[in-house]
């Protein structure tokens, strides 16, 4: 079990992964509305306690319950009218939900009943188990176990009941608080890890073509600023057969790994990098139009390092589409890559070791003649090989 937890702790966490999957399958909005409905149900349950003899009796207790109900109603409305929350908003939701539930339980006049009703924390725990990382889950579990322990102490002092039974209840609740979300999160994280691996190129560690589509098309619910353009850069290593002939296939694999790593470093999280097949890589990103040319030129030039055992160069083609026209579906991604691929082959036919751009958005909105990169072509050790 400890090995399982240790592996779980090392797995990558991508908050957007599950919402993106749900969005692609039409589940995100129904889930969002359902969560709002669950919150409202708990608000109604709190209001019904006013009709019960064990409900809030004093002014302070009534104020606590009303505060919890108003807060819960606001949260429910936000779930209905707002898009799926960001990571920070999700964490804030969990914190607010835990506090509102605790306030509502403190207002219940019968302390042992309030202690029993602390099972309501489980609803929030299930949300944590599905959508938040291990750290957030453990913080939630620690907070809810502590809150239940406080309610248990209040219950023990408020009655002559069986203290041993209250302790047993706390142990059962603590077990549920820990293991129900944990048993949800562990397999989900492993499924996500498997999904990440299936989307990765095993040789270079960058995404494969399938992973590129998943990442780019999967963030369709995220807004792109109006001044951005979406660029697709296709990079094909020049004369790679000669690299394999010089270094052997193992050496060729090392070259591909180095190129993949350089592309990851130079993009530094602002672009999606994938190996499209063979010695061909793709880079897709939404960037401000004003830095479009410089950003992608830097990516193209990162391929060549003069101190490599066999320095490689690349023929690259760059295509783009305005942010307001880009729908981020599979057809848009494929169209951009096809256009960039055609431009890349034009660069290769012109001798390679160059970046060609069909037109440059910062200069003009329409098509312009192919633009060669400003870098001086690099002479390769294998240029004279027949």
From TrEMBL:
Annotated ranges, domain GGDEF: 228-360
Keyword Transcription included in the entry's annotation: no
One Pfam assignment: GGDEF
Alphabetically ordered keywords of this record: Membrane, Transmembrane, Transmembrane helix
Keyword Transmembrane (UniProt): yes
Stretches that traverse the bilayer: 34-51, 63-81, 90-108, 137-158, 164-183
Composition-biased stretches (Basic and acidic residues): 365-386
Segments of this protein annotated with the region Disordered: 352-386
Entry superkingdom: Bacteria
Listed SUPFAM superfamilies: Nucleotide cyclase
PROSITE patterns according to UniProt: GGDEF (PS50887)
CDD domains in alphabetical order: GGDEF (cd01949)
Name of the molecule in the record: GGDEF domain-containing protein
Coiled-coil positions: none
PANTHER family: DIGUANYLATE CYCLASE DGCM-RELATED, REGULATORY COMPONENTS OF SENSORY TRANSDUCTION SYSTEM
